Amino acid sequence: MVEYDEGTALVVVDVQNDFADPAGSLYVAGGERVIPMANREIESALAQGAVVVYTQDWHPEATPHFDVGGGAWPVHCVGGTWGAEFHPDLEVKGEIVRKGTRGEDGYSGFTARDTATGDDAPTPLVDLLRKRSVRRVVILGLATDYCVKETALDALKLGFETILLRDGIRAVDLERGDGERALRAVETAGARLR
Ligand code: VGL
Description:
single chain, alpha/beta, Rossmann fold, 6-stranded parallel β-sheet, 5 helices, globular, binds pyrazine-2-carboxylic acid
């Protein structure tokens, strides 16, 4: 278990039905297995005065992010649908930051990428963390090789000390080894794995 304090935020990435339920449209193998650990970390973080924040993929019905719109992914996490809801076993006890809401590629919890121009715009996450004087972020959730990775890389770029909880993440692994490569990339960028 990590030590938490008031300058630390636990960022729980995309523990939503479409990723964490075997019936979800973009189910990440073993996704539901991160939930017990997530709940333990959430309790521990809150008990020690840390900030707990949740990211939530929240797409419009049609977006260039989806394969039917020319993108890479099956339709998933459409705002207001079951797939976009947090998994019912996850304890939700903190602020929620939605991403992808205007049709952007929303991998990182910190930025939304315009699918036409490739430009990044900030989500409310960094302001929220700065307001609470956070200097260190602890990340878990789904999926290692996309949203967890991009959130961790942005956290590092923004100057946060960044820790990834290995047992609290699972990979899509479109190509075998993507998850492990993502971990190496975030480690190389300066994150610690726990
Ligand atoms: C994610 C693929 C597409 C994720 C989101 O949460 O990691 N992966 N959209």
